[in-house]
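Section: Multi-chain targets

For targets with more than one molecule, the full set of components is provided together so that the structure can be written out for the assembly as a whole rather than chain by chain. Components appear in the order listed by the source. The example entry contains two components.
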Amino acid sequence: MTYSYYPGCTLRTKARDLDKYARACAEALGFTLEELPDWQCCGGVYPLGTDEIASKLPSVRALDAAKQKGQDLVAVCSACYHVLKRVNDDMANVEDIQTRANNYMGLEDPYKGETKVLHFLEVLRDRVGFDELKKKVVAPLTGRKIGAYYGCLLLRPGKVMGFDDPEDPKILEDFIRALGAEPVVYPYRNECCGGYISLKEKALAGSMCDKIMDSAGGFGADCLVTACPLCKYNLNQSGKLPVVYFTELLAEALGVKEVAL
Amino acid sequence: MNKQAELIRQVSGVEPLKCMKCGKCSASCPSYEEMDIKPHQFVSYVQNEDIEALVASKSLYKCLSCFACIERCPRGVKPGALIDAARQVVVRQRGQQYLSADEIPALLDDEMPQQLLMSAFRKYRR
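Its structure, encoded as tokens over all components, is:
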């Protein structure tokens, strides 16, 4: 199976490892991530304003490019996934945005939300299957106690994202279990890390990340796992527990960690 | 109707009259302590067209777009979208941007992801 792949700006710079592990794991699991040519940055945040069209266009271009290839569109970064999925929802369901974005784009065949957007974790859960994944694990992470850190962008708003139960998700816990480790469930796993506030207000983001780390540590986690480079950055400023990308854990369990980088 | 109130309603797509004042948004907000006008109050300010106080509020820059208030609102009011729209009404004006490119070098560190800069620029200026 081949998917269109949208890496996003950070996976080409500070989070290269998140990207490289994802590609290596995909190959090991029997599917291919085919990077879209000429993708543009998603903007990092979904433009909430109903009159914001131009800032939604990079996503529309990527969604349409995947449509042209007849492929589902996969993202690994939580923010890219969030923005692509919400813009796609607008293009399918909000007539005003659909009309104006298509007027800008001038496509022969207007884009109306046809592409399916998937997070890499959804490919693992819904296409590969966690039972199959478990069979492909060559180096199980036995004895590791890992706290899933979901944050905001994968889950909310639940009706649009449709990723998992926004208040009681389990996809990362199932993922951790499939790799042979023990998931640690703790109350702050879907609380915010502070997001972009850490640029100008480090202390505020720091106090939020401390609460997350204390919560996870208190329930016995040795480390946290995330899909988001900004969550990882903010949590690392607190530094009470190590934070790893989910693709790194996956690469380790599949035995492709060394060859990936 | 006050022009800015109308603009905030339009940009947010929010109907503040749907609010039934349950306070769940403020109870869910991770920035609650930092805000001078709390999320549930924000909705009332727009209802009452008390816009001067809103656009001067530091709450505009405390919202993290975590969508907890939007997720949990039993009436689908989207307080976070209202705060976002109020901030946009401000930062779209000349000279009202909350982040300048000149500030960036002093804020950078080696680990900082591009995602952070991109997001902050999108949220804090036009």
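Chain B has one domain: 3-93.
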